[in-house]
Amino acid sequence: MISSSRRGFIRGLAGVSLLSAGGCFSPSPRKPGQKVRLAAVGVMGKGYSDWTPMLKTGLVEMVAFCDADEGMLPLALAQAKKDLPDIDLSKVPFYTDYRRLLDDADKLGIDAMTISTPDHVHAPVAIQAMKKGIHVYVQKPLVRTLWELDYFERTARDNGVIVQM
To answer: With 50 as the cut, is the pLDDT of residue 16 above it?
Structure first.
């Protein structure tokens, strides 16, 4: 039986925190001060609110943008100029096809990726990124079917990547 007391909730939360802390350590250790190299798939709307806070931390370097609508990039850059005046994003490569972005992932040195696309594209983009060893931050819903969920989980485990939704 699940305890619904406050003490039981806190004990459970502590257990989850300990378990999740194990996932916070990257398989490839970073040098002190080394920034996480981030790519964003989906640059405006929810995508913008996903990648900009990461940049604001100072722990992340943006290495690529991707959006099927190339008209989103000028909007994102204009907004970012206001919100992130100290960060120049004008030279960050832009892709309209996430598959081309993933083809260049090694050249770009992508460590992590935000995926803020229409729901039916979340799992395909994330799975292909995870197969390349890229950690992913995925908007909800993570997947649409139980089959996708099983495949998603196995892919993350087999490739030793961190997934957050």
So the answer is: no
